[in-house]
Amino acid sequence: MPAVISVIDDDESLGASLVGLLRSYGYEARDFASAEAFLAWEGASGCDCVIADIHMPGMSGVDLKQLLADRQCLVPVILITGRADPNVEARAQSCGAVCLLKKPFPAQALMQWVDKALGG
Q: What's the pLDDT score for residue 59?
């Protein structure tokens, strides 16, 4: 059974692109426009990896990672951002994210981090 990866980004075209990429590598992938939509999904607890944008309306990717940790959910989270904020890397590290990728990032870099997050 393929790993389930959730992509959470308010940029609909990026979310769709990442889902297509992940599926081309054999993963089961779903996209969500917000962290809240992901949390409302009944399959969220069975997710194997999360790729989340840091800056979104509502809950940020960092806030999502912290909430998951508070709920004892140890799913690996890869954070992505399009902003050049000097505090972003520190926030990503402090919340326990697998990594922080800055947009635009090469598809190969994302896939290497997904493999690492899944224990490969």
A: 96
